[in-house]
Amino acid sequence: MALFQRTSPAPVVRTPEDGGMSLGTKWAIGGAIGGISLAGLLATGSSALAVYFARRVITPSRQRTADQEVLAVIRDGRQQQVILAATDDTTMEGVYGFFFDGGKGHARIGRIVSYSPAERTVLREVEAVYSGDLSTARWGWWSGATYPDPAAVGIPAEDVMIPVDRGEAPAWLVRAGGTARTWAVMVHGRGATRQEALRAVGPALELGLTSLVVSYRNDGLAPSADDGRYGLGSTEWRDVEAAIEYALGKGAEEIVLFGWSMGGAICLQAADLSRYRHLIRAMVLDAPVIDWVNVLAHHAQLNRIPSLVGRYGQLMLGHPLGRRLTGLAAPVDLKAMDWVSRAVELRTPTLILHSVDDEYVPYKPSALLAERNPEMVTFETFSRARHTKEWNVDPERWERLVKAWLRQQLAPRLNPGAATAAGSPRPGQ
Fold first, then answer.
1. pLDDT digit string (tens) for 234-266?
2. Residue of 311, 323, 328, 380 lying closest to 350 (CA atoms)
3. Of 58, 371, 420, whose CA–CA distance to 381 is shortest?
């Protein structure tokens, strides 16, 4: 049926007095109405995209995407090698974890034997297969989590439970010899597990630190939060505080925090807000989120989301009215977690290790924090390590830097008798 249809063989002429409109006027109004409708549709679509973006940021994913292809596994006696599709990850030197069979399989992948850019394949050594049958794997995912548990590192550990909101969170307790007065609390990143932190347990032991490798809300091991959403550090720090309280109850007198990625943001919040912050002697942060606004803008750009839509998603996270759309129990104050703007407020000595090619958390906020607060922040750059794989690319350098810096921070104070009362900040804090 035609949209416009004549009902009379002769034209009808109307005058302005009787409310008539010319055909041109009708077309103009129709065009305006159509434009308004299109704008409404675009606004609705942008809002939906902003909601989707915001929810993706704060919603835990229970299953990793198997995006790394296994082309072949070669067995030579007891030794194995694996041919993988060449990617930015698999062509990096170093040692890595490879998870397959939905995460039930875990292998440790070592040095590059050969690399064919033309065929886009890479041959690497298989150092160990902890679980599963790698020969049957076709897809999996690359990881910086090289070891499945402390036993695989050759380190004795105890399984302990830390009381937290809504229950208990499992942790590995690795005791240093003798009576350790300084404990390390190690905090993994978003979407990762406590396996990520095992890379730092050996260096901590060498320094005489007892380690708690913790889990926290919504990570799949600890109890979920009421809303089942990440707080991006604004809520998770309470579980780190619970771990500190556990350590103090077992004889610790001071704490060193280790944090990876979002775990770094969590540590920064704990050092800022915890009632035990005066006992946090130092922090070691690997590829930390220093400024969530920067990270979210980066991911909006990576996903080709218009900057205005990305900012709208950030607004939803931080505004009370956005809770119904995001599912958050309380807004996330992104400004309070902007440590570039708050640089001078950081009063805990902090070592940051960050790769300049980090594809997930840009390194520049880390550099700016160190630039604006050189008294408290030491910044060490890596390259070709991508996100949180600084240790994997160069474990010797990573461990050397961490141990040398911590030895300096943990050296006896000039006036050890001037300890402050519990709850009071140290001088300079």
1. 999 999 999 999 999 999 999 999 999 999 999
2. 380
3. 371
